[in-house]
Amino acid sequence: MFTGIIEELGEVTAVQPSGDGVRLTVRAPRAVSDAGHGDSIAVSGVCLTVVDQGEDWFTADVMRQTLEMSSLAGVEVGRPVNLERALAAHTRLGGHIVQGHVDGTGVLVEVRPGEQWRVLRISLPAALAPLVVDKGSICVDGVSLTVSDVSAADAGEHWFEVSLIPETLAATTLGSRAAGDLVNLETDILARHVQRLLAFSSPLPNEGGSR
Fold first, then answer.
1. What is the value of pTM for the model shown?
2. Closest Cα partner for 47 from 108, 94, 93, 4?
């Protein structure tokens, strides 16, 4: 479990094929400062398990399904990544509840700069559109953000916008993102639960019938 508050910017230093997945090595001095074998670290929003580590790096396996669902597919040495250690029970929940289970990817379609902030418009897969609401929470590349605008429900192409403050621009990879970039998306877990519950809201066959 994570909060979406990025602790440091890391860098991919090695990518090795591993079956139908890959094994990544990431430079992460802060993240590994108290990490142990089997611990979870979110890498640009993807929850990965530490399988090896050194003084300032860790290695994790990324399975095929994760590659297919996230922007880690085709990851190369030198890519900067957002890093967050798993949430400790005694700390403040500064962002929102993030699982590190990416729902899919979106494409950054527009960047609008302001004097001290930047607005990003990101495409949204149709299946995820009902789960994203104005002023709600969303996780983009592991960063907890508040939705500042959304496309209409009947729009032909779905999108949402987030407004980034200088701290977010400086402390995460989102500050260097450009139109056309692929980003990881994780929608609010509460919205996903509600959607699933509603799928079972219709009366069951023969419910209410004679006995």
1. 0.90
2. 4
Angle (nearest 5°) at CA 173 between 146 and 170: 80
CA 82 to CA 46: how far, in whole Å? 10
Chain segment 15-34, per-residue pLDDT in tens? 999 999 999 999 999 999 99
Instruction: Quick: pLDDT tens for 69-95.
Output: 999 999 999 999 999 999 888 887 888
Give how far the C-alpha of residue 138 lies from the chain's centroid of Cα atoms, to the nearest Å.
8
Closest CA to 95 of 143, 133, 45, 140: 143
Alpha-carbon distance of 10 to 82, in angstroms, equals: 6
Distance CA 162, CA 41 (A): 24
Q: Which of 98, 9, 26 is nearest to 61 (CA)?
A: 26
